[in-house]
Design brief:
The complex is a heterodimer of chains A (428) and B (166). Chain A has helices spanning 4-11, 18-23, 149-152, 169-176, 182-185, 187-192, 200-207, 286-293, 321-326, 336-346, 363-382, 409-413; strands spanning 27-32, 44-48, 51-57, 63-67, 81-83, 86-88, 95-96, 102-104, 122-123, 125-128, 131-135, 158-165, 212-217, 221-229, 235-243, 247-249, 258-267, 270-278, 399-403. By secondary structure, chain A is of the alpha+beta class. Chain A folds into two domains: 34-135, Rieske [2Fe-2S] iron-sulphur domain (Rieske Iron-sulfur Protein), CATH 2.102.10.10; 149-413, Alpha-Beta Complex (Naphthalene 1,2-dioxygenase Alpha Subunit, Chain A, domain 1), CATH 3.90.380. In chain A, the strands form four sheets. In chain A, strands 12, 13, 14, 15, 16, 17, 18 and 19 form an eight-stranded antiparallel beta sheet that branches. Chain A has a four-stranded antiparallel beta sheet with strand order 2-3-4-9, with no helix packed on it. In chain A, strands 5-6-7-8 form a four-stranded antiparallel beta sheet, with no helix packed on it. Chain A starts with a helix and ends in a 15-residue tail after the last helix. Chain B is built from seven helices and seven strands; from the N terminus they run ααβαβββαβαβαβα. Chain B has a seven-stranded mixed beta sheet with strand order 4-3-2-1-5-6-7, with helices on both faces. In chain B, α5 (106-118) packs parallel to α6. Chain B is elongated. The chains are: A alpha+beta (428), B alpha/beta (166). Chain A: Keywords: 2Fe-2S, Dioxygenase, Iron, Iron-sulfur, Metal-binding, Oxidoreductase. Chain A: It comes from Pseudonocardia cypriaca. Chain A: Residues 27-134 form the Rieske domain. Chain A: GO terms for molecular function: 2 iron, 2 sulfur cluster binding; dioxygenase activity; metal ion binding; monooxygenase activity; oxidoreductase activity, acting on paired donors, with incorporation or reduction of molecular oxygen.
């Protein structure tokens, strides 16, 4: 359980809230690069941390992320004309550049300096990998750019998607560091999903449904180790890194690409689930990439032209009770991503954690909540930079290994859980 | 006779309605019972002080102990000093949390962990140490603790017990 006041602290991410301020210390995904595919393309309406924003790409290819609403009469700039180096409001022709600076007010005299004093709130927008990243904090405190491996490997080695998730960010994120649900909820996927099946580690998952857990601090967050029995008295460890506030990686399976997530608050009742796959030492195969596009693995099949999953709460996630009975989909829901999302959304827009009955196996979640709470309060009260801001903290990997019983997983895997460019990931 | 209009059973879907804030009001408002019988055991002298401070807070059913090993037999002592036997305390426990700060209680950790395992009692081990002073305790806890937090800090003890409704 979690006290209501702490639940509020951790789940509210709007302007001026402690957790909202914590998120503003980090670079985070704002949208996919594919959403602004060319110069002067249509602007994209976004909501992040409960702020309504517009992303656009100007005539020179510069990316901008600005207040959605024109400074004049408050019309939405989603209707804006993206032309000649700026976004023009079609209502009266006011024009803004990517920094939010007003550069034209047609109703004013030609030599007027009026527009120089008009500037919309704007945040940087930087393309790294398949993602446009933003930093919504104080520009004077802007940290170095993020260094997550999936975004830095060559484009042929990585793929990122996103989907709308209609619940608070925290309950979505908590699913990402909960290794014990895999054996049940995703048991069908371990057998059937082209991006999961066939790995030796899947056998250990299926054969031992009662993992032991170790939760260890890392510089940027946590490493959660889930231990299951393997052969010859050894243990199979799946090591999940969490980098604050909302990045996780799924431990790998065989030579499959490695999966991971960000959960980005849209507002307090919705988030974007970013999912990525990458391979550190080879290109994704055409079959792998197509499987991701088709919604396999941690990705979702979305309504064409949108980022809303085809299976969503408005159609009961296309529940198939026959396949549930047959075990093809343990919950009756197709797709690993939607298997997670359906249950997380069912917890309500903001989960009421005063009603939870946690068990020791939830220690990773308990610890993560503690770290988030402490970091938010330290930032609020003392201005302390939270863990995970330093890009050195981003250079982590997940791992899946078999170890002798007596070995501590982090001692044995300290090199495996650090990025070593060009070297294979530790995987079973 | 008018024909009854067909209603698609999926629209509006039960999930769409059930997951709204408005429907959350209709979840049953019944207090959740605390954990039945959590036992918190300090494995060494440093842990005793941590457990003593935790015990001073308000809990539902948690009981707090120190332990010692005499000739290979582990005995418990309530944090206020009353004697107890491991077997009796485990007979009614549903979760055991062991706290270590150094290697002094490694033998106790092994014995208690094994006894819990034999009785199917869930266990958690918290090692409150910033260095390798408790490596043997970690190793002793590892085979039997369902959850192990090496490198924990004192607030982890309270946060874990709170989360478990101890």
């Amino acid at each position: 359980m979690l006290r209501q006041d702490i639940n509020e602290l951790l789940t509210r991410t709007g302007p001026g809230t402690p957790m909202g301020e914590l998120f503003r210390q980090y670079w985070m995904p704002a949208c996919l690069a594919e959403e602004l595919p060319e110069n002067d393309c249509p602007p994209v309406r976004l909501k992040l941390l409960s702020e309504r924003l517009i992303a656009f790409r100007d005539s020179d290819g510069r990316y901008g992320l600005i207040d959605e609403f024109c400074a004049h009469r408050g019309a939405s700039l989603w209707f804006g004309r993206n032309e000649d180096g700026g976004l023009r409001c079609p209502y009266h022709g006011w024009k803004y550049d990517v920094t939010g600076q007003c550069v034209e007010v047609p109703s004013e005299a030609d030599n007027s300096s009026f527009c120089q004093n008009v500037k919309l709130t704007a945040y940087p927008l930087v393309k790294i990998g398949d993602i446009l990243w933003t930093f919504m904090g104080d520009p004077a405190e802007q940290p170095p750019l993020p260094e997550f491996e999936f975004a830095l490997v060559p484009p042929e080695q990585t793929y990122t998607s996103k989907r709308l998730q209609q619940c608070n960010w925290l309950q979505a994120f908590e699913g990402g560091i909960d290794s014990s649900h895999v054996t049940f909820l995703h048991s069908g996927g371990l057998k059937n999903d082209p991006l999961f099946k066939g790995a030796k580690g899947n056998e250990y998952n299926q054969n031992d449904k009662k993992p032991f857990f170790e939760v260890a601090d890392s510089d940027g967050g946590l490493f959660v180790g889930a231990r299951r029995n393997a052969e010859d008295g050894k243990y199979y460890w799946r090591i999940t890194p969490w980098v604050m506030p909302c990045f996780t990686m799924v431990p790998p399976r065989g030579d499959h690409p490695i999966h991971g997530h960000f959960w980005i608050p849209i507002d307090d009742e919705n988030c974007w689930a970013y999912s990525f796959d990458y391979h550190p030492v080879r290109a994704l195969t055409a079959a792998e990439r197509q499987a991701m596009i088709d919604g396999h693995g941690v990705h979702s099949e979305n309504i064409p032209g949108t980022y809303r999953p085809l299976a969503n709460r408005d159609n009961d996630y296309l529940m198939d009770r026959e396949k549930q009975r047959a075990g093809e989909y343990y919950s009756g829901i197709k797709g690993i991503a939607i298997q997670d999302a359906s249950l997380q959304e069912s917890m309500g827009p903001i989960a009421d954690r005063t009603k939870e009955r946690l068990v020791p196996a939830d220690a990773g979640i308990i610890k993560a909540r503690q770290k988030l709470r402490k970091a938010a309060i330290a930032l609020r009260d003392h201005g302390t930079t939270p863990p995970g801001v330093d890009p050195e903290h981003h250079r982590v990997r997940s791992a899946a290994v078999v170890l002798p019983q007596a070995e501590a997983f982090l001692d044995a895997c300290k090199d495996d859980v650090r990025v070593n460019p060009g070297m294979p990931i530790a995987s079973v | 006779m008018a024909t009854q209009a067909f209603v698609d059973p999926n629209l509006p879907s039960s999930c769409a309605r059930a997951a709204t804030a408005a429907e959350a009001r209709y979840r049953i408002q019944r207090p959740v019972a605390p954990a039945r019988a959590p036992r918190i055991i300090a494995l060494d002298g440093g842990a005793v002080e941590i457990v003593r401070r935790a015990a001073a807070l308000q809990w539902a059913n948690a009981r707090f102990y120190a332990c010692e090993s005499i000739d290979g037999t582990v005995t418990l002592r309530g944090i206020e000093g009353h004697p107890a036997t491991l077997a009796d305390e485990l007979a009614s426990a549903d979760v055991v949390v062991m706290i270590a700060t150094d290697d002094g209680g490694a033998g106790c950790a092994h014995t208690i962990g094994k006894a819990c395992w034999q009785r199917s009692i869930m266990t958690a081990g918290l090692v409150v140490s910033d260095d390798d002073a408790a490596d043997r305790a970690v190793a002793a806890l590892r085979p039997h603790a369902r959850v192990l937090l090496p490198g924990a800090d004192e607030s982890d003890v309270v946060d874990l017990l709170t989360a478990l409704r101890a």
